[in-house]
Design a protein that fits this description.
The complex is a heterotrimer of chains A (about 350), B (about 130) and C (about 400).
Chain A (H helix, E strand, L loop, with lengths): L3 E8 L3 E3 L1 H8 L3 H8 L4 E3 L6 H14 L8 E7 L11 H7 L7 E5 L5 H14 L5 E9 L14 E9 L5 E13 L2 E2 L8 E2 L5 H20 L8 E4 L5 H10 L3 H5 L4 H4 L6 H11 L6 E8 L1 E11 L14 H6 L2 E2 L2 H7 L8
Parallel strand pairs in A: 2-14, 4-5, 4-6, 11-12
Antiparallel strand pairs in A: 1-7, 1-8, 2-3, 6-7, 8-13, 9-10, 12-13
Helix pairs in contact in A: 1-2, 3-4, 6-7
Chain B lengths: L2 H5 L2 H6 L1 E5 L5 E2 L17 E5 L3 E10 L12 E8 L4 E6 L12 E11 L6 E9 L3
Chain C lengths: L5 E8 L10 H15 L9 E5 L3 H4 L5 H8 L9 E4 L5 H14 L6 E8 L5 H9 L4 H5 L5 H14 L5 H15 L13 H6 L2 E3 L2 E2 L8 E10 H4 L7 E10 L14 H14 L8 E3 L5 H10 L8 H6 L16 H4 L4 H17 L12 E8 L4 E9 L1
Parallel strand pairs in C: 2-3, 2-4, 9-10
Antiparallel strand pairs in C: 1-7, 1-8, 4-7, 5-6, 8-11, 10-11
The chains are: A alpha/beta (about 350), B mainly beta (about 130), C alpha/beta (about 400).
């Protein structure tokens, strides 16, 4: 059975802060930071936004673009590392908000930055086996870097939702595979507000090894080479890592550019690869082939080989905001406002 | 607020479910069990009705003094929104600069956090309104 | 029509303001005793008590204030009935109306009506939060609408419709502070300038701090009896000529037009009919200026001005003492203060003072008929009372 994307929706909060502004506060060279990370600004959620509201905004956009009965959705998974509750699912709120409950399997997933794509795989299995007609996989985060930490220049917010099914597919998922090892490059212990990381250890043995291996194994499995793809989307903790990865594997900047969002919005963690895919699909043409490789610290990579179908011609993209429109409608804030919005100021109890 | 009091209203809070009088057709938000126009003849005939979420600003105010729970949002905008169905609803306006708001501005419902019961309490989600992108 | 005519034979009121030295029960008793002395009663004649109070349960964690006031006024030993009445800002007037109806019906002869609120025993934030509950808690307050912002939305729409200018709305505060400066019981006793109102810190645009009535402690009380007995107690009985009460939707947004309070119109019509009077017969009026904009709505809904004319009337000084219709000679809720449950009774105390000719520096000349207009929430409960020289 063919399984693929029937619809999708994206959401990026409106506020932005620049590395220059962050550097100004911490006595660091923000300009150099921006250049080194290839991040010119990052998205910041409003105080009334969290993973649940971002997931809902994305899921509602996804639903607006197609005419399907929400009761036909049999599973919904929200992948995030910043779920607002430690215990109590984000997904139940999302399911209720799109009126897909109560006959639905819901769970929250966590695998650092690849929980969203892990959800896609879980849903694909259920659709492919005939267990459910449609399933929803969402990747969303409102990640925090500790004040002054290098992560603060990149950790941002956003998410995208994908409706997976076997009818009216706008993008067929030809294959998916995962490459997983126990590699502690980045983590957050229970109860800790900010994550910790292994510094430069997050590069070669972690990101590059897993993304590179998963990409190579996928191309090997599909009998493809970089030239066969119109677009490539790699996990994007910053703008530089995916550029380097692309170069190492033999992809061009042109193949990478459509799905590369960190220069404008920073690292949306579980939202990163899903948003990159949404951005690519927003302007995709029938026949376009996409290689997508997510990465989650800890560590693992999910690779997807995708082909855009003719059905995308009839897809009602205009029914919801495109990624490009959300990159335009922005408002820049200063660090003080950012600190207030992100709960970094100690308030009176 | 006790958990149940909020939970009970989730259909109205998330998806703007109100009531439609089966007798005269008038729409209300939130749910009513008696139509103030039809009274007795409406009893048992009030139907659940979902608003589209689209409407326009009827009146608004930028709020500078607010309860501590809303302090982080100050100044924020509160508005009475006239829904396309004719019924009005009160809610906050988000993702808009105060100087750009005007009576008649097109808005649509979005879902946001509208409060919580403290750092260890439940989070309340509900509708607010955002400008409709051009 | 009332079965028996009713008279006000005694009045009492505390200073309004931040009464740090006094508890709820102390202010309640002080106002009550003053009214009882004023009516030349010993106390044993009292048949019943009604107490207007909005939220003692949240302001001082004390419900059951009917019994509390009966007890500490020494009435509990007589076991007279004492009843607490709540209708947010209209609590005091509703208590008065209950007392009037009890006397009119022949149920009781001598009735003490009190109104009291102690608002400063909680923080300002808590106090404002409690006031928000006069609106629809679930569908207004929880959505972020403060009580001030609801009135700000009325003002926004009122200005947009061209009914008044921002300056005319602000002028209400200037006028009421001027009146307050003539009232020794008022919370604020200094005149202010228009610029002061306009430039004060913003509460909910376009309303500033000076467009809003303050948080106040205070109590007021009146003594009622059948008109036929009034001369036994006082040389200057004031007759209750008409009362009217009306309701509207709890939430402001449920109204078709937010620039008018239909409940004010209905309550006023009932009171005018009972009294056999018209707006032009009223010599002095206390209206519910919890916010400056509210006074303009009241003046139009009570029939004194056509819609869009009240703002001009205030601007031209018609509503000042010495003008054609003096409004809020006490300083109103704005300057006299607004201890919620006490306000409706305080309005009656002011009208009685005016009709007796005892208002000294703020006396309205030849005042024979006066009106009080009291609102709970955003026009959700309205009570109108017309009084006249007997």
């Amino acid at each position: 059975m063919e399984v693929g994307i029937v619809s999708y929706g994206a959401y990026i909060p409106r506020f932005r802060i620049t590395p220059i502004e962050i550097g100004r506060v911490w006595g660091q060279d923000g300009k150099a930071m921006a250049k080194g990370l290839y991040i010119n600004s990052k998205s910041v959620p409003s105080p009334d936004e969290d993973v649940v509201t971002i997931a809902i905004a994305a899921a509602r956009s996804m639903m607006r673009r197609v005419d399907i009965d929400p009761a036909d959705i049999g599973a919904l998974y929200v992948g995030s590392e910043s779920h607002p509750y430690a215990v109590k699912p984000s997904g139940t709120v999302v399911a209720e908000a799109i009126e897909a409950s109560p006959l639905i399997s819901v769970a929250d997933l966590e695998f650092a930055c690849k929980a969203g794509t892990a959800g896609m795989q879980a849903v694909m299995g259920q659709v492919g086996s005939g267990m459910i007609r449609y399933g929803v996989a969402i990747g969303a985060d409102t990640s925090q870097g500790a004040p002054g930490d290098a992560l603060e220049y990149s950790a941002s917010a956003g998410g995208a939702a994908f409706l997976i099914g076997s009818e009216n597919i706008i993008a067929r998922i030809n294959s998916t595979l995962s490459y997983t090892t126990d590699t502690p490059d980045f983590w957050r212990r229970e109860g800790q507000p900010y994550p910790s990381h292994g510094g430069r250890f997050t590069g070669e043995p972690a990101y590059f090894k897993h993304v590179g291996e998963a990409a190579k194994m996928m191309m090997e499995r599909m009998g493809t080479s970089p030239a066969d793809y119109n677009h490539v989307i790699f996990h994007q903790p910053n703008g530089k890592f995916p550029q380097r990865m692309a170069k190492m594997l033999g992809f061009t900047d042109e193949q990478l550019s459509r799905g590369l969002l960190p220069p404008m919005i920073g690292n949306t963690y579980s939202g990163a690869v899903p948003l990159g895919l949404a951005s690519v699909l927003d302007t995709a043409s029938p026949g376009d082939r996409i290689l997508m490789v997510a990465y989650g610290s800890g560590a693992g990579s999910d690779a997807f080989d995708i082909t855009v179908t003719d059905t995308i011609r009839h897809f009602n993209l205009a029914a919801a905001p495109t990624v490009a429109s959300m990159l335009e409608n922005t408002r820049e804030i200063d660090y003080a406002t950012y600190a207030k919005y992100r709960g970094k100021i100690l308030m009176k109890g | 607020m006790p958990v149940a009091r909020f939970w009970r209203d989730i259909p109205s809070r998330y998806n703007l479910y109100g009531s439609r009088c089966g007798s005269c057709g008038k729409i209300y938000f939130p749910t009513r069990h008696i139509c103030p126009e039809c009274r007795r003849s409406s009893i048992g005939r009030m139907e659940s009705y979902r608003l589209s979420g689209k409407g326009k600003v009827y009146s608004y105010s930028v709020v500078h003094e607010a309860p501590p729970q809303l302090a982080v949002l100050k100044p924020y905008v509160v508005a009475i929104v006239e829904m396309d169905e004719g019924v009005r609803v009160t809610g906050q306006l988000v993702d808009v600069d105060a100087e750009k708001i005007d009576i008649g501005m097109r808005v649509e419902a979005v879902l946001r956090k509208i409060g919580d019961e403290g750092p260890s309490g439940v989070i309340h989600y509900g509708f607010k309104f955002a400008p409709v992108p051009d | 029509m009332m079965m028996r005519e009713v008279a006000v034979i005694g009045i009492g009121i505390t200073k309004f303001g931040e009464l740090w030295d006094y508890s709820f029960r102390q202010i309640g008793i002080q106002a009550g005793l003053e009214a009882v002395y004023d009516a030349n009663l010993s106390g044993s004649e009292i048949d019943a008590m009604y107490v207007g109070n909005m939220s003692s349960g949240r302001f001082i964690d004390q419900h059951h204030v009917g019994a509390l006031i009966a007890d500490y006024s020494g009435m509990a030993s007589n076991h007279i009935p004492s009843t607490r009445i709540e209708a947010a800002g209209a609590s005091g007037s509703l208590a008065l109306h209950q007392g009037v109806m009890a006397v009119a019906s022949g149920t009781h002869d001598i009735v003490v009506v009190g109104g009291a609120e102690k608002m400063t025993d909680v923080s300002e934030e808590a106090s404002n939060f409690i006031l928000n509950s006069a609106a629809d808690q679930q569908w207004e307050s929880l959505m972020g609408a403060t009580f001030a912002s609801l009135h700000a939305m009325i003002a926004c729409r009122y200005i947009r419709e061209g009914y008044a200018t921002r300056e005319q709305i602000a002028q209400v505060a200037v006028k009421n502070h001027l009146h307050g400066s003539l009232n020794p019981k008022a919370q604020f006793q200094k005149p202010i300038r228009l610029e002061t109102v306009l430039r004060a810190s913003m509460v909910a645009e376009p309303l500033t701090m000076f467009d809003c009535s303050p948080i106040s402690d205070g109590a007021a009380a009146v003594v009622l009896c059948p008109m036929e007995m009034a001369h036994e107690y006082t040389d200057k009985p004031i007759k209750v000529l008409g009362i009217g009460q009306a309701s509207d939707t709890l939430a402001l947004y449920q109204r078709d037009d937010i620039c008018t309070f239909p409940a004010t119109k209905v309550a006023a019509q009932k009171a005018y009919e009972m009294a056999g009077l018209e707006p032009r017969d009223i010599d002095v009026v206390e209206v519910n200026d919890d916010y400056t904009i509210s006074e303009l709505l009241a003046l139009e809904d009570l029939g004194f001005y056509q819609r869009g004319e009240a703002g001009k009337a205030v601007e031209f000084g018609e509503t000042e003492i010495g003008g054609s219709l003096p409004v809020n000679t006490s300083g109103g809720l704005k300057a006299r203060g607004n201890p919620i449950g006490a306000t409706g009774v305080a309005q009656i105390v002011e009208i009685v003072t005016q009709l007796r000719g005892d208002a000294e520096r703020r006396q309205v000349k030849e005042a024979e008929i006066g009106m009080a207009h009291n609102v709970g929430g955003t026009g959700s409960t309205v009570a109108v009372t017309i009084l006249g020289v007997a």
